[in-house]
Amino acid sequence: MLTPLLPQLNMARLNHSGLLALGLMTFALFLGAGNIIFPPLAGLQAGAHLLPAAIGFLITAVGLPLLTVVALARVGGGMPALTAPLGQGAGTAMAVAVYLVIGPLFATPRAAVASFEIGISPFSGVGALALSAYTSVFFLLVWALVLFPGRLIDMVGKLITPVLIVALILLGAAGLWLPAGPVAPPQGDYVTQPLLKGFLEGYLTMDALGALVFGIVIATAVRDRGVFERRLVTRYSVIAVLIAATALALVYLSLFYLGAGSAVLAQGTSNGGQLLTRYVQHTFGTPGLLLLAVVIVLACLTTAVGLMTACGEYFGELLGQPYRRVATAFVLLSLLISNVGLTQLIQFSIPVLMGLYPLAIMLVVLSLADGLWRVPERVFRPVMAVTCVFGVADGLNAAGIGQGVATRFFQSLPLADVTMGWVLPAAITLLIAAGADRLRKPHPQIVD
Fold it and tell me: Which H, E and C letters describe 14-78, residue by residue?
């Protein structure tokens, strides 16, 4: 009696409002602490070189996450499907590293402490007791929402995100029409290499790494609406990320401009969150600080929920443990780490991201070009291995770790001074591996 119902289930579709809700949910998942605190500081430092810096930032903070979700949609799964050509051991190792970085070790704790320093500390002060009390409440809410992942599209896409978008529109409009002062001259690497510097600053949002895990969250939200046909799941996932990417780009550009005109307020600030707080207080006073608190708390809460949901589902399956038990453990770990402070978390994360981002970039590039490879393993494995070695060297260099001949060799590579010494070795390896793959015969097909 159930068989006649299956075609009807497979033909389920999302209407325009459902697609919009899915896109808003995706936007809210990506819009976290890094998306709000890094663009103002980058805009401040870029100054008159705002446009090329913003373009570079958008490439890694918007373009790369978009391509990542497309790559995931094409393989029809999460990270295990994307990393399959690497082999089970290497693929699992990379997945574990990504999930830990965007989960309990960096991104999720950063969401809590950033929302505190920007939205709450102007009213409560910056003491350790206030931070501890806030993060306890923050992660209690995260835990409560994480327990019901199937309702994510309702709670985020239809309830939280509209409030968030209205607040962001007000903040972005203020940055454009009420600048605190004139645009200042560029600083540091933005003087000579604004595009490349902006490209690297986009790493700090962690959006490309987040996309590696959000892809499956988006697909799950589609299936929770009764859509099971693979083609439609892929199509709706891509539409959702296009909506999110457009909204994120507008947010970034407005915050870049806000920061570029805030040089008169920057004295004594150590991160973009403090700069944003000063701008809002200068322009709007206490009502503005209340608006900013709404923006940052909602943005960070939704991102933390998405990250913890993804981590709980992945590690629950990997370890053979119940989802709720794993998710609860990660929420508690995130709570503990979040109390070290925002500036310290950013400093700790930079070397890790400089080492991990090259792997994410090459994985997406190789996956999107999979039609060119006769045997993907022949190309993926050597290219990713070389990228890993040189990417780790760049990360150690960014952390100021390492001495001796090997270190001097890595530092002598083209672009090593901007922590991109991995590019040339990876490109050479790709050319060699691709050529060898074309010259060798494909594996014989097994006929059943």
Answer: CCHHHHHHHHHHHHHHHCCHHHHHHHHHHHHHHHHHHHHHHHHHHHHHHHHHHHHHHHHHHHCCC
